[in-house]
Amino acid sequence: MARKRIGEAVASGRILISDGAWGTFLHSKGLKPGECPESWCLEKPESVLDIARSYIEAGADMIETNSFGASSFKLTHYGLEGRSMDLNKAAAAISRQAAGPDRWVIASAGPTGKLLVMEDVTAPELYEAFKVQAQAFEAGGADAICIETMSDISEAVEAIKAAKENTSLEVICTFTFEKTVQGDYRTMMGVSPEDATRAIIAAGADIIGANCGNGMERMIDIVAQIRAVAPGIPILVHANAGLPCNIEGKTVFPETPADMASFVPAIVKAGANIIGGCCGTTPAHIAEMKKAVLAL
């Protein structure tokens, strides 16, 4: 059966399952500290394909790409700033191969690391970097661009505009929120879930949400706040496997697959339409969340 657009599938009443973490997987396959993860899309494509397939086999309805840091700005750290088009296109093509004809590819685009407020980048420069990524994703077979882990509204808006104005991709945009001492949620730049939501909808995002920074339990509150100001738009959540702990010098995410799956009914009730994982999540987490969705 041919793929609908993701928004159409959500509108039909489906709760969709996304994928989980990529970074930990890459390190387990031999990615060395200081090595460019995205370079593997050209140098070790079979290893990247294996990660994507693992999530599809676990039951994911959509798969991200190994392209989170593949903007020209991030690639400068590795001397690869001129390879953004090639790397992003390859990343999308690998995930397209894993997804097959029936599942979606939501290509990952993370922050550039540059801030307009610090005047170390201009809005046109941000726009151009995201334009290259978006066009490469489309050329590689992606269905959507997932602009994720955002903290600055102005950067997110430039990314959304670049994708909407230069491709036919669906545009997903998610922010990362942290709980403050006052008990509310803000990004690193002080942006609330409500303010982020209003801004990215106005910019043209088709799907909105939150990723990273929190486990599934805290994401329930965040989703409810987003849904309160955006009653109709699809919401995507990529939660961590709990809050990180330091155990014998290693960062560990403590929530088991069963732990994360136990929150699925509550996060769907809060308003989430697409559920997946971020740091610490594995194919086993995705498989359990898939079971929880099917049991609703």
Question: How would you summarize this macromolecular structure in one to three sentences?
Answer:
This protein is of the alpha/beta class and 296 residues long. Helices cover 44% and strands 18% of the residues.
Report the CATH architecture.
Alpha-Beta Barrel
Q: What is the CATH homologous superfamily assignment? A: Homocysteine-binding-like domain
Q: Return the string of H and E elements.
A: HEHHHEHHEHEHEEEHEHEEEHHEH
Let me know the average pLDDT. Answer: 96
Question: Could you characterize the architecture of this molecule?
Answer:
The protein is an alpha/beta fold and about 300 residues long. The protein has a single domain, classed as TIM Barrel (Alpha-Beta Barrel). The protein is built from 13 helices and twelve strands. The strands form three sheets. The chain has an eight-stranded parallel sheet with strand order 1-12-9-8-5-4-3-2. A two-stranded antiparallel sheet has the order 6-7. It has a two-stranded antiparallel sheet with strand order 10-11. Helix 10 links the parallel strand 8 and strand 9. Helix 6 runs parallel beside helix 7, helix 7 packs across helix 8 and helix 10 runs parallel beside helix 12. The two termini are about 25 Å apart.
Spell out the key features of this protein.
13 helices, TIM Barrel, globular, alpha/beta, 296 residues, two-stranded antiparallel ribbon, eight-stranded parallel sheet
